[in-house]
Specification:
Elements: H1 11-14, H2 19-30, H3 35-38, E1 43-48, H4 60-73, E2 77-82, H5 99-112, E3 117-122, H6 127-138, E4 142-146, E5 153-155, E6 158-160, H7 164-174, H8 180-189, H9 202-213, H10 229-247, H11 251-254, H12 257-269, H13 275-286, H14 293-302, H15 317-323, H16 325-331, E7 377-382, E8 385-392, E9 402-410, H17 413-419, E10 432-435, H18 456-460, E11 467-470, E12 482-484, E13 504-508, E14 513-516, H19 520-528, H20 540-548
Parallel strand pairs: 1-2, 1-3, 3-4, 9-10, 10-11, 11-12
Antiparallel strand pairs: 5-6, 7-8, 8-12, 9-13, 13-14
The protein binds FE2/S2 (inorganic) cluster (FES).
């Protein structure tokens, strides 16, 4: 049933006749708004992660205005609220340390203010799950507006992809194959516009997952940031959120178990980032949906990769958009999707897919010619990862997917930096590089260190990939035979903590196994002499993180933020 103005949450702030409401109205007038501007209208918060510290969101001041235009047109009252930006490029040790902070900020911004619905402006990696997690917990009507990918990079006639080509050319520079001048030219050409990384990195992956989940307008996730369709999409989101408020359509009504299956399936079909595993599990738990690693693996096994996009494939997000975008891709996966799931657009996910056009079968492949017959992510288990680990099999070297080799162990990132290029490091192309203390607590924040650099002496010998194992994450733009998210992490005494140089590690992706060829008795003996390391942050947010963050297989949310009892509405007096 449609809400009436007196049913709006904001009515408690503005619509009643008491001392507090007088203050709320007079202070709204202080901003230049007349009562005709807001009285009886849904208040729409535009939570904006614009910041000079986040190049990917440089256009969000204007996009907030575009959303406002739509909200006004539809009879709502838009108010912009800034939130911490989590710019992937600058924040250290990792934005992942702060994902839950933005989730908390989003939730509490909405709870404490006279808000009826929200448009979320995010895009750079962690901002997508963070804002959706917060909005889900608050459960007010919400639409996500993704920042959109930047334009293709260019260098001397070559197309450059964010991140992926940085890693590739950095390896060439370390191998002595390119000079400083070339390196500077690459720096000038790789980031040509505002917007998120234009490979299928974490930002593009999470935007696609949000769309498949039903939390963006149909087609929104593929639109390049600099395309005029992007502000039109933002204004449309502004118009649409007003109706969502009147109809009281909340995130938990959209984000069902079936919708999460759709999000995972889409993620697998685009060869998406391994980070999506951690984020979607955390998002699902906020919505009260039991999504786990086994579900990822099951959906991955049945889903072909048909989005031929870097780093798994050949093309970039701009190509994907012109080829038909996510709607085109979903149209080719109809039999694998729950088409009846509702979206914030007001129609089902399947609505209109029959008419979705794919104009380039190279970029969005037909089902009979997939880039890979299985999805991008495989879940591994074994005595080295009792609670699971993941690998992006489509971005790995096929010949290394079944491999046994001796471990070369680095105790932490500093140890890795100090020794990886040591000419005396006892390493060969068959070695397995192991990084400890890079997980949710050890990093802290599970930094994207999982694509360990290839030792320089091997690079110079022509080696470009090796098996690497860590409890870290990996950038969605990265590639290589990297086993990630090993759980439990080494910092809390997971078996990864007890690996020693020379131990044999067996990787078998087709059998989903990750085995440390050390006996249980020997592992138990090594555990005897182990003492837990000290937590690195003695106070503040870092201490809160250390005390409450969950392991990778559980999504790295804080234990007290997952779905639980309802929090009462704030008293207004
Ligand atoms: Fe912002 Fe990659 S750095 S999306």
């Amino acid at each position: 049933m449609r809400k009436r103005p007196e049913d709006l949450r904001s009515h408690r702030w503005f619509g009643v006749d008491d001392l507090r409401a007088f203050g709320h109205r007079s202070r709204t007038k202080q901003m230049g708004f007349a009562s005709e501007d807001y009285a009886g209208k849904p208040v729409i918060a535009i939570v904006n992660t614009w910041s000079d510290l986040n190049p990917c969101h440089a256009h969000f001041r204007q996009r907030a205005e575009d959303v406002k235009r739509g909200v006004w047109q539809a009879g709502g009252f838009p108010l912009e609220a800034p939130a911490i930006s989590l710019g992937e490029t600058f924040m250290k040790p990792t934005t992942m340390l702060y994902r839950n902070l933005l989730a908390m900020e989003t939730e509490e911004l909405l709870r404490s203010n006279p808000v009826d619905g929200v448009v979320l402006l995010g895009g750079c990696d962690k901002t997508v799950p963070a804002m959706l997690m917060g909005a889900t917990s608050m459960n007010l009507p919400a639409i996500f507006v993704p920042a959109g990918p930047m334009l293709r990079g260019h260098w001397r006639g070559q197309t450059l992809g964010s991140g992926s080509d940085v890693w590739k050319f950095w390896a060439e520079k370390r191998a002595g194959a390119i000079d400083d001048c070339t390196w500077r030219e690459l720096e000038d050409g790789i980031a040509r516009s505002y917007g998120t990384c234009m490979t299928m990195g974490t930002a593009s992956t999470m935007a696609a997952a949000a769309e498949a989940l039903g939390m963006t307008l149909p087609g929104a996730s593929s639109i390049p940031a600099a395309d005029s369709a992007h502000p039109r999409m933002a204004a449309a989101a502004g118009r649409r959120i007003v109706d969502l408020v009147w109809d009281d359509v909340t995130p938990k009504a959209i984000m069902t178990a079936e919708a999460f299956d759709n999000a995972v399936t889409a993620t697998m079909a685009i060869g998406g980032s391994t980070n999506a595993v951690v984020h979607l599990i955390a998002m699902a738990r906020r919505a009260g949906v039991a999504l786990d690693l086994d579900r990822f693996d099951a959906l991955s096994r049945r889903t072909p990769v048909i989005g031929d996009i870097r780093p798994s494939g050949r093309f970039l997000m701009e190509d994907f958009y012109y080829a038909g975008g996510l709607r085109g891709l979903l149209a080719r996966l109809r039999d694998l999707l729950h088409l009846e799931c509702m979206t914030v657009g007001g129609q089902t996910l399947g609505h209109g897919l029959d008419e979705a056009v794919v104009s380039n079968d190279e970029v969005i492949r037909v089902r009979t010619n997939p880039a890979s017959v299985e999805g991008g992510v495989a879940v591994l288990r074994g005595n080295l990862a009792p609670h699971g680990a993941v690998i992006k099999q489509t971005a790995a070297t096929p010949s290394l997917l079944v491999h046994t080799g001796p471990a070369v162990v680095f105790a932490d990132y500093n140890d890795l930096s100090a020794r990886i290029d040591d000419p005396d490091l006892p390493v060969t192309a068959d070695s397995v590089l192991v990084l400890q203390h890079a997980g949710p607590l050890g990093g802290p924040g599970m930094p994207e260190w999982g694509m360990l650099p290839i030792p320089k002496k091997l690079l110079q010998a022509g080696v470009r990939d090796m098996v690497r194992v860590s409890d870290a994450r990996m950038s969605g733009t990265a590639y290589g035979t990297c086993v990630l998210h090993v759980a439990p992490e080494s910092f809390v005494g997971g078996p990864l903590a007890f690996v020693r140089d020379g131990d044999l590690i067996e990787l078998n992706v087709s059998e989903r196994r990750l085995t440390l060829q050390v006996s249980d008795a020997e592992l138990a003996a090594r555990r005897e002499g182990w003492t837990a390391p000290a937590v690195q942050y003695p106070r503040g947010y870092g201490k809160l993180h250390a005390e409450h963050v969950l392991q990778a297989d559980q999504g790295c949310d804080f234990d007290f933020l997952q779905a639980g009892e309802e929090i009462p509405e704030p008293e207004i007096h």
